[in-house]
Amino acid sequence: MEEIRYRSTRNEKDVVTASQAILNGLSRDGGLYMPEKIPALDIVPAVLAGLSYQETAYEVMRRFYTDFTEEELKYCIAHAYDSKFDTEEIAPLAEADGAYYLELFHGPTIAFKDMALSILPYLMTTAAKKNEIRNEIVILTATSGDTGKAALAGFADVPRTKIIVFFPEDGVSPVQKKQMVTQKGDNTFVVGVRGNFDDCQSGVKAMFGDKGLEAELDRKGYQFSSANSINIGRLIPQVVYYVYAYGRLLAGRKIREGEAIHVVVPTGNFGNILAAYLAKGMGIPIERLICASNDNRVLTDFFETGVYDKNRPFVLTSSPSMDILISSNLERLIYEIAGKDAEKTSALMERLKSEGRYELTADMREKLGDFVGGSAAEAEVSAEIAGVYQKTGYLLDTHTAVASKVYRDYVGRTGDAKKAVIASTASPYKFTRSVMTAVDPAYGAMGDFELADALSRLSKTEVPRAIEEIRSAEVLHKTVCEVDGMETEVRRFLGL
Ligand SMILES: *Cc1c(COP(=O)(O)O)cnc(C)c1O
Predict the structure, then answer these.
(1) CA torsion, ordered 385, 386, 390, 396, to nearest 10 deg
(2) Is the pTM of this model over 0.90?
(3) Measured torsion, CA atoms of residues 393, 397, 117, 340, in degrees rounded to the nearest 10
(4) What is the CA radius of gyration of the chain?
(5) How do 188-194 and 161-168 pair as beta strands?
């Protein structure tokens, strides 16, 4: 296997191994790590069609994480993709209304972040061992809801790690809060902050940048790390399900060998769709990468005009995980279409920081040909949920519905009849109120758990464990602090 190394998008001199990239998270210059080249998958279709999820994961990861041994990767994969998922398929494909919904929500927190956060702790502890890091890893995270719980679930009880999550005490949904404060595991610590998400984020960043604290931690045998979505340890595990989906389509004889498909992704931070781009780079015949946005349509405009402009109002929508104006992982695509030119990428990112906007050169725009942007407004999202349900009995969550609507618009506009895989990023049980009132506004009168039961009857699916658990779970984390008290809480938990 050819060795793949990782390079910062902002400094061509920062070249590291896969395990170092996972440990570092971000490059010191602020850039993101990209593989020097995208390895070819080179597996014949007949074999690909027969691989399980875990086998597919191994085939993809061994090509990217070339400094991990077979034994190490298989250990990580076996511990990540096990019975914490409620189906052996891990990521099943559901056919409804002429499209294939790739269900990425069968993990412990019923949203797609589980696909990567269930393996990241194992990759990270393995990487630490490999690089002879003796300290215990302390994951420090600020969350606006979804990532915090998925990271907690992933790191809970993983040996030689601790995880500390800060969330805005009054800034997350009741279900999200309950999910976090009931988290089990002696190595977990969850703190509500009297402030907003930006306060939490700034507090965490300040601790990451504090050299004195770093030295103190080191003396105690600890070091901080991040479970942020820009970590290459989260990106590569997301390539797996696109490869797997293609194999499933082959196995089900839905497509012929080599037949091209489209992939449609409800997008926020641009991580998920970038993984599809890498799957295409490995050789999976993906023709169009359709990037779906909600009313925060900064990416739609970007693909239409070549101008990225975040100077616009931030809109709160029913698909909150896509309410984002700065899509961090887009930097990786910029780097690629700039011909892996770190200087050019750096300059554009500087402009984004200072002016909130940048424009691509004609050259770079030309290389975006595979991407199509599209957006769906709030009313269209509800109509899509209701429409697909009435036609097929299948219920979409709000994020998936954005993608579904954008795909339908694309077909309407182009008449393109190729098969499409739509990334289904959350269970409808996670956004019960929006989903149920889209079907019938009368459901608005019901309480949250009542709504889950009603959804179960409507969709003829079982209420997921993740929801059942929090009905009766005991609150284990009661700490609340002021914005300037975050470090004190970290010190208390770690005994500094
Ligand atoms: C995080 C998230 C997204 C956005 O994914 P990105 O990789 O950030 O583009 C979409 N849907 C759901 C449900 C999510 O949790």
Answers:
(1) 20
(2) yes
(3) 110
(4) 22
(5) parallel
Which of 269, 277, 328, 434 is the pocket-test mutation for ligand 1 (most atoms within 8 Å of CB)? Answer: 269
Residue 243 CB burial class (10 angstroms; 0-12, 13-18, ≥19) = buried
Q: Which residues contact 478 (CB under 8 A, 6 or more apart)?
A: 181
Residue 484 has, within 13 A of its CA and on its CB side, a CA count of: 0
Cα 396–402–406 angle (5° rounding)? Answer: 120
The protein residue whose alpha carbon is closest to atom 15 in ligand 1 is: 321
Average pLDDT in the 166-195 region?
A: 91
pLDDT score, position 469 = 87
Give residue-wise pLDDT tens across range 460-480: 999 999 999 888 899 999 999
Q: What is the pLDDT of residues 254-284, one digit of tens each?
A: 999 999 999 999 999 999 999 999 999 999 9
Ligand 1 neighbourhood includes 399 CB (under 6 angstroms): yes
User: Which is it for the CA torsion 181, 108, 322, 336, positive or negative?
Assistant: positive
The average confidence (pLDDT) of the chain is 94
Query: Nearest Cα to 154, choosing from 85, 242, 71, 230?
Result: 85
Nearest CA to ligand 1 atom 8: 269
Tokens 């200087």 belong to residue? 343
| Ligand 1 atom having least distance to the Cα of 399 | 11
Tell me the C-alpha distance between 355 and 494, whole Å: 40
pLDDT at 297 exceeding the cut of 80: yes
